[in-house]
Amino acid sequence: IVLVEDGRIVAVGRDVHIPEGAQTLDLADRYVLPGYIDTHAHFRISREVPPLQNAAFLANLAYGVTTGMDVQPSTVDLLAAQDRVDAGLMLGPRAYSTGPGVFSNNEFRSKAHALNVLQRYRDGYRVRNVKAYISGSREQRQWLVQAARELKLMPTTEGALDMKLDITHMIDGFTGLEHAFPVPTLHHDVISLAAQTRLAYTPTLLVSFGGPWGENYFYTHMNPHDDAKLRRFTPYASLAARTLRRAYFHDREYVHGDIAASARRIVEAGGQVGIGAHGQLQGLGWHWELWAMASGGWDNLEVLRAGTLTGAEMLGVDQDLG
What we know:
Elements: E1 2-5, E2 8-12, E3 36-41, H1 55-62, E4 65-70, H2 77-86, E5 94-97, H3 111-125, E6 129-132, H4 138-151, E7 154-157, H5 163-172, E8 176-178, H6 188-196, E9 200-202, H7 214-221, H8 228-233, H9 236-243, H10 256-268, E10 272-273, H11 284-294, H12 300-315
Parallel strand pairs: 3-4, 4-5, 6-7, 8-9, 9-10
Antiparallel strand pairs: 1-2
């Protein structure tokens, strides 16, 4: 028995008292899971007249993704869409966002300058997470981290296919890393550093580094074009463009399994790894990302934990979700 009151689970067990008049659902022979959490989403919100509905939102909900962090949406339109969802005016997941990325064109001159910029992100955009996107020299990046800490913001960062850059990100105190380390097989030194710094690491295996993108494996081994649920919630022009013509690679060329195996070692060492589908194929793509992670030797419980509770912890919402 799972008892839910006012949108929150209040009790779980065989002997839970069911209040009189409660609505009941018989879930015998089924599994009950928390909503899935996409730690690196891109919802592709229109930059024109705000729509009444968003296909990306609907597709994610249809596949069980109830929370997502859009990491660098390039536009503030997503903030308005998030407000509409929160107000009950649009159907969608909890659509969190970093706001537009913090790029090197800010040309930070001091920590005070970085503080001035990030305070406007916190107060104007009302975000709790920001993304440093190759945002200057190491000194400038350190100013950004220090300012974020003072403002109680969580700064994640672009991996950028640069191993040395990624290592400084961990040492200097960034809370997250988006995209895979560019070296698929990590050794003990990097594994330990990622775990001990509690880096919130989202490898985005569908756009894996060091080999063909992981999404091509699933496009060429499955038939998403004819998936009934996907066709219902995805505009056909978008679905056809993504599914009908894809590059083919031999299975041995893919590296997402190697990246996933290194990610599992980070978790075993005490680190955090989340499931983020990068908006490659809304809804179903998140499950592909989960399966791609499992290809690195994760068991079912491990990947489900990464996609729920660990994702909530990485986004700082585990007191409510996951």
